[in-house]
Amino acid sequence: MVTKGSKSRSTSGQFTQLGADQVRELKDAFTLLDKDGDGTISAGDIEEMLVSLGQEPSKGEIDDMLDKMPRPLTFSAFLTGMSSHLCDMSSRQELLAAFQAFEDDDKKAKGIKADDLKSQLADFGMSNEDIDAAMSSFIKSHGFLGDRFNYKDFVDIMRGEGEEDD
């Protein structure tokens, strides 16, 4: 029987694509969200988390969030949803290889020339305004090495990872 708010389930085969450390981290995140310790993330758990972050969500906002999630939101459902999201992301090596295609042959220079990157993004159909907005928000925090775009840091940030040694 399908109940209101039920969503079709993703395949649990995606679990096997996660490493033990990732599963452990997701379990820790789930435990933090499951404030009452009943094994499910409820509207009350989400409300408590948002309030602890300084938010004042309405019942409608919480219901909207929950309507986008499978119910009951057990660890298994949480793990399935998160593994699906994580597995959809390209691997770090694939992303780095894509950016490396834009590097010039100077092995001493790190990153991609900013002008070359802007030109390539424009060729893919991005407007100059969108390119400038995307690059400036990243550059403010850590994106340039001289006149070069530091794509390794960018890839790590987009994947939610810290700096890694190559």
UniProtKB/TrEMBL annotation:
SUPFAM superfamilies: EF-hand. Gene3D superfamilies: EF-hand. InterPro entries: EF-hand-dom_pair, EF_Hand_1_Ca_BS, EF_hand_dom, Myosin_RLC. Pfam families: EF-hand_7. Keywords: Calcium, Repeat. Residues 21-56 form the EF-hand domain. GO terms for cellular component: organelle. One of its GO terms (molecular function) is calcium ion binding. This is EF-hand domain-containing protein. The lineage of its organism: Eukaryota, Fungi, Dikarya, Ascomycota, Saccharomycotina.
